[in-house]
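Good morning,

Attaching, inline, the backbone tokens for the sequence recovery test we're adding to the shared suite. The designed sequence is right after.
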């Protein structure tokens, strides 16, 4: 998935190089973050984090449908087990983070792992008094105030505040 272009691509892997890159889904994507491949029925599953839903389409992008929607706050990663017909995903909901599962048809949804937080946010920003549950989140937040961009592209020298942004950017050099 390409969250910058809002497209899902496919390509051929030949001798450690991806060639023949073509869009599979190139309309109607908000933020497709996770992608999982069902190699048995030849379907792609992805998480639409801005729309809070999980979608599916065939390898060529046709027969696109929404499999799971509702009762999600921040869905991210997704995995399929087509041998058992099961779909798993994480939801980074701040109040109720969890891992859920359902059948690949979207039925029988259930939470399989959850961690309820106390809501305590002991790590406070000294600039704006915003508080965070983890020190790591505070460190990333402080970069907004300092302008620090510790992640640099080795090909074009462009800098980023977050490692994930650099990773996404590197795809533009392929």
């Amino acid at each position: 998935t390409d969250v910058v272009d809002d497209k899902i691509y496919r390509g051929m892997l030949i001798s450690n190089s991806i060639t023949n890159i073509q869009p599979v889904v190139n309309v109607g994507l908000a933020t497709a973050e996770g992608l999982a491949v069902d190699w048995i029925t030849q379907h792609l599953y992805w998480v639409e984090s801005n729309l809070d839903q999980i979608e599916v389409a065939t390898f060529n992008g046709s027969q696109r449908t929404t499999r799971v929607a509702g009762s999600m706050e921040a869905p991210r990663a997704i995995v399929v087990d087509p041998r058992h017909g099961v779909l798993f995903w994480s939801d980074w909901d701040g109040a109720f983070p969890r891992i859920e599962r359902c059948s690949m048809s979207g039925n029988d949804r259930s939470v399989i792992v959850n961690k309820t937080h106390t809501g305590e946010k002991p790590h406070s920003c000294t600039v704006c008094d915003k508080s965070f549950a983890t020190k790591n989140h505070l460190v990333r937040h402080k970069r907004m105030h300092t302008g620090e961009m510790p992640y640099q592209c080795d090909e074009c020298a462009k800098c980023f505040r977050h490692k994930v942004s650099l990773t996404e950017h590197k795809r533009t050099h392929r």
